[in-house]
Amino acid sequence: MDGRPTLQSVADRASVSRQTVSNVLNAPHLVRPETLDRVRSVIDEVGYRPHGAARQLRTRRSQVIGLRLQPSADGVNGAVLDRFMHALTEQAQVRGYRIMLFTAPDDHGEIAQYSELLDTLELDAFVLTSTHRGDARTRWLADRGVPFVTFGRPWDPPDGDGDGTDAVASRHAWVDVDGAHGTRTAVEHLQGLGHSRIAFLGWPVGSDVGDDRRAGWRRAMRASGVADHELDALDVGVEDGVANGGQAARRLMDLLAPTAFVCASDSLALGALAATRSVTGSGPGSTIDGAVGVAPAVIGFDDTPVARAVGLSSVAQPLTEAAGQALALLLDQLSGQRPGDEPPLDLPDDRHVLLCPSLAIRSSSRIHG
Amino acid sequence: MDGRPTLQSVADRASVSRQTVSNVLNAPHLVRPETLDRVRSVIDEVGYRPHGAARQLRTRRSQVIGLRLQPSADGVNGAVLDRFMHALTEQAQVRGYRIMLFTAPDDHGEIAQYSELLDTLELDAFVLTSTHRGDARTRWLADRGVPFVTFGRPWDPPDGDGDGTDAVASRHAWVDVDGAHGTRTAVEHLQGLGHSRIAFLGWPVGSDVGDDRRAGWRRAMRASGVADHELDALDVGVEDGVANGGQAARRLMDLLAPTAFVCASDSLALGALAATRSVTGSGPGSTIDGAVGVAPAVIGFDDTPVARAVGLSSVAQPLTEAAGQALALLLDQLSGQRPGDEPPLDLPDDRHVLLCPSLAIRSSSRIHG
DNA sequence: GTACGCGATTTGATCGCTCCAATACAGCCC
DNA sequence: GGGCTGTATTGGAGCGATCAAATCGCGTAC
Question: Is B64 exposed, middle or buried (0-12, 13-18, 19+ CB in 10 A)?
Answer without folding.
Answer: buried
